[in-house]
């Protein structure tokens, strides 16, 4: 197994329409990220908040733009959520992911990295006896493996041509939060099924199969999204003054540098994001009664409360959440 100068990047663009306004989802996103972290943390695994602070007039995040927002650094430990075979092969360090995020809503950028070099040498040490003891974690090696998620939230149905300035040659995937097929049986939850849920605060919910072009009060766009055929037909109406549906555009770029495995790893990772994004946005919509009335100070207080709670849950014996291959977590 040899590390060399192989440099591969795999890009996919996901488009997720939501029955929300862009400014509403600013609150929904913040609440749901924290709540999802709580639901996936326990037994020494899950999310750990390391630091968070505001940034101002930063020109380095998005070329040609000066952005302000909130920076967050978290560590995810996810061994029990990985496929069972990988758990038996690789050391725990392989499942420790470092996440940096820059939330300049409606634009957001997330960088995920892993200490790949340490993982490789630990693997060789364990199975090929290259050295007498595994290397200690030297910190994550972003030059070998990284995953970048860029997001933009716009008041449309997913019809913007290229809002993230992605390469013309890319796969575009439309996700419908009402589609249960994307989720496995272990991840399906009737409490967060948009087809069953009704919001007491807003009256929204029990979405129908045609919800993306029948939402009231104004149909600014009429679209038919054929998820499995990956086609989109758009008919623009005359009245476009109100938007009751928004779209979250996400460009996922996987960068992997490892001879013989780059294509396999990139495709495996990209395959999971249809499930991850669908589940997150289903949850966010069905949690609307918890976040719709929160102001900025209340959201920041909620995030701080969750950060403290995560530390407690990490120390508890019970593992929480779902696995990527749709099976119960095995201790």
UniProtKB/TrEMBL annotation:
GO cellular component: cytoplasm
Top-level taxonomic group: Eukaryota
Phosphatidylinositol transfer protein N-terminal domain location: 11-306
Cross-referenced Pfam families: IP_trans
InterPro entries (UniProt xref): PI_transfer, PI_transfer_N, START-like_dom_sf
GO molecular function: phosphatidylcholine binding; phosphatidylcholine transporter activity; phosphatidylinositol binding; phosphatidylinositol transfer activity
Xref: SUPFAM superfamilies: Bet v1-like
PANTHER family in the record: PHOSPHATIDYLINOSITOL TRANSFER PROTEIN (PTHR10658:SF35)
Entry protein name: Phosphatidylinositol transfer protein
Organism: Necator americanus
């Amino acid at each position: 197994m040899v590390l060399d100068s192989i440099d591969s990047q795999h890009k996919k663009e996901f488009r997720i329409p939501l029955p929300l306004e862009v400014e509403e989802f600013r609150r929904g996103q913040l609440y749901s990220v924290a709540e999802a972290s709580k639901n996936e943390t326990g037994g020494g695994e899950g999310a750990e908040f390391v630091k968070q602070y505001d940034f101002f007039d930063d020109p380095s995040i998005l070329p040609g733009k000066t952005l302000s927002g909130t920076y967050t650094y978290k560590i995810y430990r996810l061994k029990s959520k990985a496929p069972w075979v990988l758990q038996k092969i690789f050391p725990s360090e392989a499942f420790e992911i470092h996440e940096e995020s820059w939330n300049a809503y409606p634009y957001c950028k997330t960088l995920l990295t892993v200490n790949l070099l340490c993982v490789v040498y630990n693997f060789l040490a364990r199975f090929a006896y290259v050295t007498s003891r595994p290397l200690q974690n030297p910190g994550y090696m972003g030059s070998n493996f990284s995953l970048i998620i860029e997001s933009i939230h716009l008041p449309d149905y997913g019809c913007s041509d290229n809002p993230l300035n992605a390469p013309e040659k890319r796969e575009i995937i439309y996700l419908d939060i009402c589609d249960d097929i994307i989720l496995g049986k272990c991840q399906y939850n009737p409490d967060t099924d948009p087809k069953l849920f009704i919001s007491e605060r807003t009256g929204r919910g029990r979405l129908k199969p045609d919800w993306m072009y029948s939402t009231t009060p104004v149909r600014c766009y009429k679209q038919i999204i054929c998820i499995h055929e990956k086609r989109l037909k758009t008919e623009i109406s005359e009245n476009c003054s109100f938007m009751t549906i928004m779209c979250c555009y996400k460009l996922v770029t996987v960068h992997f540098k490892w001879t013989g495995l780059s294509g396999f790893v990139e495709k495996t990772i990209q395959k999971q994001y249809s499930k991850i994004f669908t589940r997150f946005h289903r949850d966010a919509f069905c949690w609307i009664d918890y976040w719709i009335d929160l102001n900025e100070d209340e959201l920041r207080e909620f995030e701080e409360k969750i950060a403290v709670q995560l530390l407690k849950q990490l120390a508890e014996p019970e593992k929480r959440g779902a696995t990527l291959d749709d099976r119960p977590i095995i201790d």
